[in-house]
Design goal:
This is aldehyde dehydrogenase (NAD(+)). The chain is 39% helix and 19% strand. The protein is α/β, with parallel strands linked by helices. It binds 2-aminohexanedioic acid.
Length: 515
């Protein structure tokens, strides 16, 4: 981009316009202690106010009171609120998508895609609001019926990360609301503005719901801005029976232990170190495109980003040079421009972590291609990089860790079983792929002795999951599942009910107790 283009951008003014047009009060954007920045230019967009611990206590207490009311509203009527939220998101997709790009640095189609993901989960949750059903189970006793019922759980805490600043909230909130829960959200301190925008759209949906006769109690949803202190309030409050937290494994280790200490539930969606295997029969054109998107897309800042690539020795020389070409020529720059594919890293810390990982990779014998800082004219305070491809012989050191940046470690293999073993030999277990046209290899990879991840794909990359499936992973990824399938069950409590409609009292297991 030329300097003149840079100067024609006025992101702070544009951000204020978008936020006020969505209904955010201007005073929420100035005078606060926390600078909200754009990674696109590195500039400060707004000064937002952190909530205090006392604010958090009050918001959670109100959400608990609201839950006691909301749970009484029939689920399909709760679904109506989520339907209206989906309508607000549809009507404001362009504005919110743009704000996601400005605040998180996503390219245009990914900013819009993030909002689409929110719309999709709203529609899923509306349907779900008529499908919160349990089983009827055969009982051993005559004239008895055994069944299970799913009841609302309570305040659902949501802690989300900067890289999907609003979609991950929507996965949790849309489902939690139809399940009869109230929701308190602590977004990443790096992305408070998209959270304020989303909260404003939710307020509009709530207002319309009430105008149309819906019964939504005050305090049903809450937003807590700030750092660790407010997050801790959510994790420690006995009125919060469930916290869904997305972020680093280090964060999850602390949050998970605190929740376990008070017997609250956790849905943890933590680090990924996602890999793909490229077998000799793979369609290499398709593989090239899939790997490029999964490894370089979103500047490597998805929890599902591809970080390790095992390439069969027979196709290594056909694939890897082409990949390097793609790395050398991919369009890096202002994510707000239509033709850009790689936007910025979120901040300096991400850049430093990337450089540390690359130097550790060199120490382990890795040959590093790319990875250097790219200066975009006029954006000297932003951190753009060329994605890095690292050819490395061993899976050690940085290859075993998640570095939240575009680094792809490429390793050759000969034997599929050995490759699967290496694939699984990292602490994380989120997402994975195999590229093959061999049915046995594909089925083996998705079978019990294949990938040990929560997501295992064939001939598509590990990132970019649809909302219809359950999303989450194993091992240090935390074990939680969000979004589609039956992930809703984690947001409700299950009661098993046995009803005796006869006149005698047979005891289970043949026990006799005649008084
Ligand atoms: C995340 O990076 O925290 O599957 C979530 C994907 C997206 C969600 C990623 N739908 O890549």
């Amino acid at each position: 981009m030329s300097p003149s283009q840079a100067h024609s951008l006025n992101l702070a003014a544009e951000t204020t316009d978008i936020l006020t047009s969505l209904g955010v009060a201007p005073e929420r954007l100035r005078g606060g202690a926390r600078a909200a920045r754009s990674p696109v230019t590195g500039e400060v967009l707004a000064q937002v106010h952190d909530d205090t611990r006392a604010d958090a206590t009050a918001v959670i207490a109100r959400a608990h009171g609201a839950f006691l009311q909301w749970r009484l509203v029939p689920a399909p009527k709760r679904g109506e609120l989520v339907r209206l939220l989906g309508e607000e998101l549809r009507a404001n997709k362009a504005a919110l998508g743009r704000l996601v790009s400005i605040e998180a640095g996503k390219i245009v189609s990914e900013g819009l895609g993030e909002v689409q993901e929110m719309i999709d989960i709203c529609e899923f949750a509306v349907g779900l609001s008529r499908q919160l059903y349990g089983l009827t189970i055969a009982t051993e006793r005559a004239e008895h019926r055994m069944m299970e019922t799913w009841h609302p759980l309570g305040v659902t805490g949501v802690i989300s990360a900067f890289n999907f600043p609003v979609a991950v909230w929507a996965w949790n909130a849309a489902v939690a609301l139809v399940c009869g829960n109230s929701v308190v959200w602590k977004p990443s301190e790096k992305t408070p503005l998209t959270a304020l925008a989303t909260d404003a759209l939710l307020a509009r949906a709530l207002a319309r719901y009430r105008r149309e006769g819906g019964d939504a109690p005050d305090g049903l949803t809450g937003l807590l801005l700030g750092g660790r202190a407010v997050g801790e309030m959510l994790v420690d409050d006995p009125n919060v029976p469930l916290v869904s937290a997305t972020g680093s494994t280090a964060m999850g280790r602390v949050v998970g232990a605190c929740l376990a200490g008070r017997f609250a539930r956790a849905i943890l969606e933590l680090g990924g170190n996602n890999a793909a295997i490229v077998a000799p029969s793979a369609d290499l054109d398709l593989t090239l495109r899939a790997v490029a998107f999964a490894a370089m897309g979103t500047a490597g800042q998805r929890c599902t980003s591809l970080r390790r690539l095992f390439v069969h020795a027979d196709v290594y020389e056909q694939l890897v040079p082409r990949l390097k070409q793609a790395y050398a020529s991919v369009a890096i720059g202002n994510p707000l421009q239509q033709d850009t594919l790689i936007g910025p890293l979120i901040d300096r810390g991400a850049y430093d972590a990337m450089q540390d990982a690359l130097s550790a990779a060199r120490d382990h014998g890795g040959r590093v291609f790319g990875g250097e800082r790219v200066t975009i004219g006029g954006f000297e305070n932003a951190y753009y990089v060329r994605p890095a491809l690292v050819e490395i012989g061993t899976q050690a050191g940085p290859v075993e860790r998640e570095t939240f940046a575009p680094i792809l470690y490429v390793m050759p293999y000969r034997d599929l079983d050995a490759a699967i073993k290496l694939h699984n030999a990292v602490p994380q277990g989120l997402s994975s792929s195999i590229f093959t046209n061999d049915l046995r290899e594909a089925e083996t990879f998705v079978s019990l002795r294949g990938s040990d991840c929560g997501i295992a794909n064939v001939n598509i990359g590990p990132s970019g999951a649809e909302i219809g499936g359950a999303f989450g992973g194993e091992k240090e990824t935390g074990g939680g599942r969000e979004s589609g399938s039956d992930a809703w069950k984690a947001y409700m409590r299950r009661a098993t009910n046995t009803v005796n409609y006869g006149r005698s009292l047979p005891l289970a297991q043949g026990v006799k107790f005649d008084i």
